[in-house]
Amino acid sequence: MTVAVYCQHVLGVGHFFRSLEICRALAPRPVVLITGGPPVAADLPGHVREVRLPPLVMDERFSELRPAEPGADLEAVRRERRRLLAELFAAVAPEAFVVELYPFGRKAFAFELEPLLAGYGRRAGGRGLAVCSVRDVLVEKRSVAAHEERVVAALNRGFDGVLVHADPRVIRLEETFGRVRDIAPPVVYTGFVTPRPPPDARERVRAALGLGAADRLVVASAGGGSVGGSLLEAVLAACGRLPRPPRILLRVFTGPFLPEEDFRRLARAAALLEAQVERFRRDFLSWLAAADLSVSLGGYNTTMNLLAAGVPALIWPFPQNREQRLRGERLQALGALRVLADEDLDPARLAAAMASMLAKPPAPPAARVDLEGARATAAWIEERLRGRPGRRGS
C-alpha cells in the first residue's frame, strides 16, 4: 500500500530534502511525494513518484503566499490545488499520510489540508494513518497562545502521531512549543534526519580535484540560496586573507534560488581566487566529506549534513528567527561546530576564524548525536500500519 508524503517548500529546499530522505527510508513501499514549490533538481528513487501541485512561494516579506507563476490568480491556484489533491487521494487511497510541519507551521496551507485530513479520516475501509512530521526547532509566533491552541486542536482532531525529527538529548519540542502535554497522539523522537556520504567520498572528491594531503578544501554554502548571499560574499573576501601555504581551494555553493545578479557578482569575486561558484550539486554531501572546513548557514539539513560528514564547521545562523541560532548553540555546546556572530562576517575576523579551524581542527563532538531519523520514521510508520502500538517519545 502507498504512503503519501506532503511537503511544501516555499522558501528554501531543506523541507524538500528532509522529506525526500524519509521517502527513501520507506522503501520498498510505493510513496507519492506531494510538492508545491519551485522545482528542485533531485534524484528520486524508483519507489517514489513526485506529484507537483501548482507552485506557491513566500512573498518578499516572508509574510504570505503568492503564486510562483507571475500574474496567476491566488484563489484560482488554491482551487486547482484542492481539486488535484482530492483526485489524487481518491485514486491512490494512501494507507498513511505524512504531513511535513503542519499544523505547527504552514498555516497558509490549511485551505487544502483541513478538508483533505477530514476526508482522509472518514475514508471507506477505515481511517488511514495521519502523521505530522516536524523538525527540531519551531519558529516563534506573534500570538503564542492562539497559535498553540490552534495546533493542539488540529493535532488532536486529525492526526495519529507526531514524529519529531530530533535527538531529545540535544533539543526537545517543548522548548519551542509550550503545550506538548496537551497533544493527544503520541509524540515520538526519531533522531535527526540526514543522508550519509558514500564511504569513499572524501578520497574520490579530493583525487578528482588533485588535492594532496597538505592541501585544504573549504566549502561555503547557503542552503537553497533564498537567503545567505552576504555570508558567501564574506567568505570570498576572507579567503583572500588566509595564509598560504598550504594551498587552499574554495568551492561556493549558492543554492538554486540565489538571484542571478548576486550569483554573477560572487562568480566575479571567485575568479580572483582559486575558487569556483556553483548553484547546486547532487553530491554536495560528498564535497562536505572531502572538505577540511565548511562555512554555511545553520539550517536543519545543512547542519545535519555537517554532522554526517564529520567536517569542521563554522555556521552563521540566519537572523530572522530563533531556529538556526538555537540549534547551532546546542550543537556548539557539544563541540560539533562553532557558531559565528554577525560581527564575525567582517573579512578579517572571518579569515582568523577560518585559519584557526584549518590549522587545528576541533576534537570530535563530546556526545554522539542520533542521525537515524529517517530509518526510525519509516520503522514507526511500518509498526503502526501492522497494527502494533508505536513507541512514545522519551
Main attributes?
alpha/beta, seven-stranded parallel β-sheet, Rossmann fold, 16% strand, 394 residues, disordered C terminus
β-strand amount: 15-25%
Number of strands: 15
Distance between the termini: 30 Å
Spatial order of the strands forming the largest sheet:
3-2-1-6-7-8-9
**CATH class annotation of the largest domain:** Alpha Beta
Estimate percent helicity. Answer: 25-40%
Assign the CATH topology of the largest domain.
Answer: Rossmann fold
Count every helix, treating DSSP H or I runs of 4 or more residues as helices: 12
Determine the structural class based on helices, strands and strand pairing: alpha/beta
- The CATH architecture term of the largest domain is 3-Layer(aba) Sandwich
Per CATH, the superfamily of the largest domain is Glycogen Phosphorylase B
Question: Which whole number gives the mean pLDDT?
Answer: 92
Q: Give the H and E element order.
A: EHEEEEHEHEHEEHEHEHEHEHEHEHH
